[in-house]
Design goal:
- The chain contains two helices and 39 strands.
- The strands form ten sheets. Strands 1, 2, 3, 4, 6, 7, 9, 11, 13, 15 and 17 form an eleven-stranded mixed sheet that branches. A six-stranded antiparallel sheet has the order 35-34-39-38-37-36, with no helix packed on it. A four-stranded parallel sheet has the order 19-21-23-25, with no helix packed on it.
């Protein structure tokens, strides 16, 4: 009888424990105090649920003599009683959403042995101030510390190779962070909305600044991009309103849509010869940008690329460019002179809309750009291969028609500038300035006052 009763007691004890269990996929979840756990393939335990209310918790290294190696997905989700946490060295991984929305968790102590932190593991832990990750960590999952609004400092150890997408997204107080050279990949939105970061040095082995990585980092004033980078993604630095200059290294071939949009303080940018693509809106509303030299290799100036760059006065367009799209230079109200090469065979109708009335485009006579200017009523002047042009704006010449309808010309008293003729085929006036001759583009013709308001482009006589 005793031989029968003793096994029955063991079975009953097991059943009591199993009754406190729930089936999770093909795993049995067992209970031990405030913890629910499952056995992994390697015979260790994974905590799948905590039901207690302890404010300061030390996670055990064993449960029912099983070695605890993992904290499972959502194990401590919304555990609002938790204020302090110690994670032992037996824990190798923290699962997805494991401590998400533990709103009052202020302090956490990690131990060596931890290797991976899963997706959104500590999302919206609003009381964090400082995080020191152990040297054994190699992977930070997507959104791992996103929306930790009070987090100020993070120590990322050498050995981490991947910072996942949105890892520190919306950590608005984060100001102290150093990314080690072991990191080779930083995901989309990784530091987006980190409004207190003022300086970042990217590791030497990162090959891409991905989409929105630093978007809305409004305090970011200094960014060091290594020569290993070959692409800058869409919205990578959108609304980095404190950024004043960027040196894009040789090797970068593409800048994505909206990459530097609304970088209001950006006044200087250097493009490498390797660059072949600049996306739409890439520098839209960079209101402090004054000068741009596009590299050979760029074939198109896309839509809104320099839209509302209201301080832009000079831009060099290379002969590799064949098209300029709608609104590319719209609202560039300081842009006065621009040379467009003959290689350009397509300019959309609103490429220069709302620019200054003083804008004059240098063209070759009879070129596509010349015809575009005439049709679009944009001032233009001819490139007559001068190495020493004179540009002067004046209310200098009186002109009128005689009884036969021919133009007669005269100069104002004391003026060196003389209108000498008119080419009706291209609507250009001929001019002389001392011993120089050339062409002028009229910005305003007031017949009643018999005045020509114009910008004059003249070259030495030959």
């Amino acid at each position: 009888m005793k031989r029968i009763i003793f096994p029955l007691i063991l079975i009953v004890l097991c059943l009591c424990q199993v009754l406190a269990c729930a089936e999770e996929g093909e795993r049995l979840v067992m209970a031990s105090g405030d913890y629910r756990y499952a056995i992994l393939d390697d015979g260790t335990a994974e905590i799948v649920k905590y039901t207690g209310k302890e404010p300061f918790l030390v996670i055990p290294e064993t449960l029912d003599q099983f070695h605890v190696s993992a904290i499972g997905d959502r194990a401590f989700l919304k555990c609002n009683s938790l204020m302090g946490l110690t994670i032992p060295g037996s824990i190798r991984s923290i699962g997805n959403h494991a401590f998400e929305m533990c709103f009052f968790l202020m302090n956490i102590s990690f131990s060596d042995g931890l290797e991976t932190i899963g997706e959104y593991a500590f999302k919206e832990c609003w009381q964090f101030a400082d995080i020191v990750l152990p040297e054994t960590v190699t992977f930070l999952g997507e959104g791992a510390f996103s929306s930790c609004y009070t987090l100020k400092n993070v120590s990322i150890p050498y050995g981490v190779t991947t910072i996942g997408p949105s890892a520190f997204n919306a950590c608005s107080s984060l100001s102290g962070i150093a990314i080690p050279n072991s990191v080779t990949s930083i995901g989309d939105h990784a530091f987006s909305l980190c409004r207190s970061i003022s300086s970042i040095r990217l590791p030497d082995h990162v090959t891409a600044v991905k989409d929105s990585t630093f978007s809305f980092c409004t305090a970011l004033a200094d960014i060091a991009i290594p020569e290993s980078v070959v692409s800058i993604g869409s919205s990578a630095f959108t609304s980095c309103s404190s950024l004043t200059s960027v040196d894009i290294p040789d090797g970068v071939t593409s800048i994505g849509d909206n990459a530097f949009r609304d970088c209001y303080a950006l006044s200087e940018i250097t493009f490498p010869d390797s660059l072949t693509v600049i996306g739409d809106h890439a520098f839209s509303s960079c209101e402090s940008l004054t000068s741009v030299s596009l590299p050979e290799g760029i074939t198109s100036v896309g839509e809104y690329v320099f839209y509302n760059c209201s301080s832009l006065t000079d831009i060099l367009i290379p002969e590799s460019v064949t098209s300029i799209e709608n609104y590319a230079f719209s609202y560039c109200t300081s842009l006065k002179n621009i040379t467009i090469p003959d290689s350009v065979t397509s300019i959309k109708g609103k490429a220069f809309s709302r620019c200054s009335d003083a804008l004059s485009i240098m063209v070759h006579r009879g070129s596509y750009v010349n015809r575009y200017c005439i049709i679009s009523h944009i001032n233009y002047h001819y490139d007559i291969n001068s190495t020493d042009p004179i540009r002067t704006t004046a209310r200098a010449n009186i002109l009128f028609k005689d009884s036969t309808g021919k133009y007669l010309y005269a100069a104002d008293k004391g003026s060196k500038l003389m209108v000498t003729g008119y080419d009706s085929s291209v609507k250009m006036f001929l001019a002389s300035f001392g011993n120089r001759s050339g062409y002028i583009s009229g910005n305003g013709l007031n017949i009643s006052r018999r005045e020509l308001l114009a910008t004059f482009y003249t070259v030495p006589n030959t």
